[in-house]
Amino acid sequence: xxxxxxxxxxxxxxxxxxxxxxxxxxxxxxxxxxxxxxxxxxxxxxxxxxxxxxxxxxxxxxxxxxxxxxxxxxxxxxxxxxxxxxxxxxxxxxxxxxxxxxxxx
Length: 105
Fold this sequence. Notes:
CATH topology: Alpha-Beta Plaits
Helix content: 10-25%
Strand content: 35-45%
Radius of gyration: 16 Å
CATH architecture: 2-Layer Sandwich
Strand order of the largest sheet: 2-5-1-6
CATH class: Alpha Beta
Oligomer: single chain
Number of helices: 2
């Protein structure tokens, strides 16, 4: 099973930033992402229960190249972190290589 190196970027932030974050990662070169609701949490920004929309958070997961990961994290720092609660981190990973698409006969 051939594997290739990639970076898993995880970003957790306020629900109101979802459209901005989607635009940011698409412009940075991400080819896709997964978004998950975050039911509740606690940390240096306090407790978030998600009971009302303004308290809701979400988590975005992206598998990207190292250069795209760096650009995304730089832009998150520049655009989101000054005004919004955000946690962003990355992990180097290996993913299964995708087999080239076979032409239809």
